[in-house]
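Batch job 17 of 40 flagged for manual review because the log was empty.
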Amino acid sequence: MRLLLFGYGNIGKRHSSILRAMAHEVVTVDPDPQAQADYQSAAELPDPWFDAVLDCTPPEVRAGWAFPARARFVEKPLGQVPEGEHPERVMMGFCYRWSLRLEAFVEIIKKYTLYSLSIVGGQHLNEWHGDYKKFKQRYHGVVTDSLPHSLYIARWIMGELEYVGSVAGKLSDLEIEVEDVAGVLLRGANGAPCYLLADYLRSPRSFEIEAITSGGWHRWEFAPKTDVEPMYWRQMEQFCKMVKGDLAAGYPNLADGMAVQRLLEQIEFQADTVRARMR
């Protein structure tokens, strides 16, 4: 297949590397010359026809929406979606969906009545991008950078969620101007509480899920050394199947992205209110 990828940063490079290893042609676009993409603007493309578009640009940019495609991949979070019709083949970049270990864990949880769910994760900025001060402009805050994954997983397990409240703030001495800790409380349809915590502070990186159900206490922990590569490979394999017409239920679609975006907007509104009080 011939694929067009916008945003040739860390995640864009990861996706393109996997797709090329699968023998697909990937053309990359990024306005930053340091990214070393194939082109700095879509206007430079000699042939505008592609099987699908992958959009790995920041949520406030989302350059890929302006480019027509019969199928597309959009990194999390969704951001604002342009008005009008969109192709039904849209996959959101919630990568944890493609962890076989997590999928098995979710299947077990769904066999029982859920009483409570907790998703906690974080990574220190210096472990994420080396000297984080060189990349300060990349960080949107943990609400935008980290919570979308947790929100998707929570909806995957619990279905529709009601926003209850949240607290987010810049609490550490990190030299950034966005929140480095965020906690969120949600409620499932049966009244079960769901608590999410994300931060830029913990070392080493961790991502853990705990559930209390009628079948007992269950715990899952992300294992970066064994989970990362298979997870991203499976994600791109499933995306390619979707491009070819496999619309089987189960992949994170545009509706999932929009539902997570609505929850993020509520969390951000609360966080802005707290920030205003702290000034």
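Reviewer: the log was empty due to a logging misconfiguration, but the result itself is present. The first helix runs from residue 10 to 21. Unflagging and moving on to job 18.
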